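### Sample
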Amino acid sequence: MFLDYFALGLLIFVALVIFYGIIVIHDIPYEIAKERNHPHQDAIHVSGWVSLFTLHAIWPFLWIWATLWRKDRGWGFAKLEEEQHDIHHRVDILIDQVSTLQEEIAQLKQAGAEQNSPEKETNNVQDQEAK
């Protein structure tokens, strides 16, 4: 008789521990978001409750969403924007250098053509005199 009541109490205790354990586990992304002062912490909390109905299928994505934000660096894209700006600046410099080189090449070709023209005329005159 005592063992029946003990087993019933143990069964109720285990059921309650599992029930509250699931609730605590589903709240982990919200706790992370709250600790990090995430701007979407309310949405993460509500999504955590929705994940109970989807058998925690979206729970890993909530974890990722909660851990992406950090107060000191935000989403982490500022460094990426700085790198892109630096790359864009370098590309602009390279474009200017290529334009300058193209102009110099055009000038050198023109100067070479002018130098070759009098020599050809001189050669043509000498050929005609030789005949």
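Residues 77-131 form one domain. This sample (GTPase) is used throughout the tutorial notebook.
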